[in-house]
Design brief:
The complex is a heterodimer of chains A (about 110) and B (about 110). Chain A is mainly β and about 110 residues long. Chain A contains no helices and eleven strands. Chain B is an all-beta fold and about 110 residues long. Chain B is built from no helices and eleven strands. The chains are: A mainly beta (about 110), B mainly beta (about 110).
């Protein structure tokens, strides 16, 4: 079955610097890759996603890149701010009729 | 407002008690899920459903059961609560690719 590995488990960056979180997946049939943000005490929420027919997608300070050949995708956050502190989860799916397979999460700490 | 509602938000219960965690969604989604998550940690899928009268077990072994008699309702039942069940339980639903989560039930078994 599908397996998703996420690194690092904890990432500490200086406010204003960039942060990169990486995930690898095992099933080449996967075609949907979302990223969720979970703030302390709150529910996970989708922040950005990418389909397998696209190599990169941006939304203001966040971007996701996908390398289908290497079977990995990454979340990039530029100009980090205190409100970016949270746990970030990646996931992979083979389509809307299939369940999401989750990475283990990355705790992002923004240092003032 | 379309959302996913979980009750109770917090529950402290004694060992051996039977409990039901409620989850209802007003989003019209077919797919629903239950996850167990220690705060800030990995999401573990314990049950899922792709529609009425359809339920499947997830990857995490759990002494729990679910039912899906109505599209909008997906309750989780623990027949005999144990301290190892202490955790947060998140319900989610999906109508396509994106999953939407409820606010969770924080369960403590003493």
């Amino acid at each position: 079955g599908e397996n998703v590995e996420q690194h690092p488990s904890t990432l500490s960056v200086q406010e204003g610097d960039s942060a990169v979180i990486k995930c690898t997946y095992s099933d080449s049939a996967s075609n949907y890759f979302p990223w969720y943000k979970q703030e302390l005490g709150k529910r996970p929420q989708l922040i950005i996603d990418i389909r397998s027919n696209v190599g990169e997608k941006k939304d203001q300070r966040i971007a996701v890149t996908l390398n289908k050949t290497a079977k990995h995708f990454s979340l990039h956050i530029t100009e980090t701010q205190p409100e970016d502190s949270a746990v970030y989860f990646c996931a992979a799916s083979m389509g809307s009729n299939y369940q999401l397979i989750w990475g283990a999460g990355t705790k992002l700490i923004i240092k003032p | 407002e379309a959302d996913i509602y979980q009750t109770p938000r917090y529950l402290v219960i004694g060992t051996g008690k039977k409990i039901t965690l409620e989850c209802s969604q007003t989003m019209g989604h077919d797919k629903m899920y239950w996850y167990q998550q220690d705060p800030g940690m990995e999401l573990h899928l314990i049950h899922y459903s792709y529609g009425v009268n359809s339920t499947e077990k997830g990857d995490l072994s759990s002494e729990s059961t679910v039912s899906r008699i109505r599209t909008e309702h997906f309750p989780l039942t623990l027949e005999s609560a144990r301290p190892s069940h202490t955790s947060q339980y998140l319900c989610a639903s999906s109508g396509g690719f994106e999953a939407f989560f409820g606010q969770g039930t924080r369960l403590t078994v003493v």
